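User: Hi! Is it possible to get a structure for several chains at once, not just one? Here's what I have:
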Amino acid sequence: MAAMNRRIVLAARPHGEPTPQDFRLEEVPIPTPGPGEVLLRTKWLSLDPYMRGRMSAAKSYAAPVEIGDPITAETVGEVVASNNPDYRVGDLLTAFAGWQEYFVTDGKGGRRVDPSEAPPSTALGILGMPGMTAYTGLLNIGQPKPGETVAVAAATGPVGSMVGQIARLKGARAVGIAGGPDKCRYLTEELGFDAAVDHRAPDFPEALAQACPKGIDVYFENVGGAVFDAVLPLLNDFARLPVCGLVSSYNATEVPPGPDQRPALLRMVLTKRLHIQGFIVWDFRAQAGDFHRDVSDWLKEGRLRYREDVVEGLEKAPEAFIGMLKGRNFGKLVVRVSP
Amino acid sequence: MAAMNRRIVLAARPHGEPTPQDFRLEEVPIPTPGPGEVLLRTKWLSLDPYMRGRMSAAKSYAAPVEIGDPITAETVGEVVASNNPDYRVGDLLTAFAGWQEYFVTDGKGGRRVDPSEAPPSTALGILGMPGMTAYTGLLNIGQPKPGETVAVAAATGPVGSMVGQIARLKGARAVGIAGGPDKCRYLTEELGFDAAVDHRAPDFPEALAQACPKGIDVYFENVGGAVFDAVLPLLNDFARLPVCGLVSSYNATEVPPGPDQRPALLRMVLTKRLHIQGFIVWDFRAQAGDFHRDVSDWLKEGRLRYREDVVEGLEKAPEAFIGMLKGRNFGKLVVRVSP
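Assistant: Yes, the chains can be modeled jointly so their relative placement is included. Here is the combined structure:
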């Protein structure tokens, strides 16, 4: 065991796009577990777009990370010391340990990870928060019906790839939006999406319209911006829009110039009777059991696939995170912090 | 019986605010009912903001009125000739007769009006489409819970006044927004709203905040614009926004200048987990029976009040309609077309 705990803290609040200077790698003593606590050594660290929000001071559904504190993140850690009879050394456990190598917890708020069920990193992806975000948002708010069209952006990411695959399991048509031909090919050839559209192509709006000949009944919103612009005219009456993220605007530093498109959006809400609803995964925490049962079954039956983008070493987290906000990852981005 | 049918047709599509020149009063022969049909003489004509939308060619949930055709409107008419054994001369019937004195119908799509139950004009207000809009939108989408705060604009109008009163019947706090001190006084003193705020007052946003010390849980949206701006920062997490109208923008002729407030709205949808949903009353037509039963009961029990703004004579309809879009009516606007 190393004598020190390496961690990455917020050095400065990013202005717009985060830069490496907004993060600082530092070493602090490894904490000691108190009564009822365990010491976790981080194996897998999850990088997710929501972390950009936590780096800002703006009010949101969760408190911001303070300057000098480790960046918030869910992790899979291995128990390396235990003062809690419920956990033995070697057990794997999820925790919100943040961007660091060691973390003390009483285990509350985390869950056990069974490596015989699936690779432990999936507890941060398809079997974790991103998977449950897709599952709960799509089924509770999106409610796709057989034959309907479900569109999702960032479709090769952990949320988008699940949205499309679950939509197909429910009998709907899945249209994925992703950046570049490789990702689009992966969607149709590997994940079974009915169509994939490259949002970087100059004819993106027309291509999306062609990929949705019967319009869009569910648009799972996780990016906003130009993709939303292209989706809006294709929405059918009574379309549902679960909103779980707006990655395209996370780095915005000022209110965008006009025209003001809010009145036009509200007019469309009215005339098409749209249902737009924001959510975060914890709003549906009561469904965690259903989620784990269904997704585990689908995985075992080979009906769900996933892809991970693995970064080696905690020190690579800032660069990988900055790239993710630009769409550079291909699959669920995780950092292997220790072997 | 007059020899001719007077009607008001769309002379030109309004550009922005409608003007008297957009309408034309004309006389055509009274139509003759065919087999199974009845001839209705219009007694009451309803004027509602949605008609502004029908005067434009823009795509919406209903087809536009054609140039030269009578403006769309629901009416209460008296059967003056009948070739249908189900209807006798003297029966009262609702119909979408439009802005005219006579109309032939087979009765389908209309319903009988029982003058012993309530004054017949209420079939166009509290017991008609506006009342059912308030009832279905508030109860299905707004879902107010006891102790929550429900805010509604155009609160002395037929929809808004019902929204606030039903909210109170469900144990919620009702905050009405209206134009001018007379209307505000009416809301609190006559209708029992918990608070009323004048949107014309210079300190309107601050006054609204003071009237909603625990924030807003349901905002029943029927106006948009500056009222929406003042409501947004007061919305609580998980607030619901049924959207049934956007009167403030019905006369808009161009996309408003920037900044673009759409991204900020979507960010608020996400961080506050708002539920925004457009609807029209016909989406809930299956609940017409529940609506009539509940509202009739509440009326008989004296738990609901209403106010009508009666205009005398068909020829006054254009002027009254133009004024309504500026908030000049006080109560449900109806035209008495015949005695």
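Chain B touches chain A at residues 59-61, 221, 224-225, 228, 237, 243-246, 249, 252, 255-267, 269-280, 283 (CB under 8 Å). The CA atoms of residues 47 and 333 of chain B lie 6 Å apart.

User: Great, thank you!
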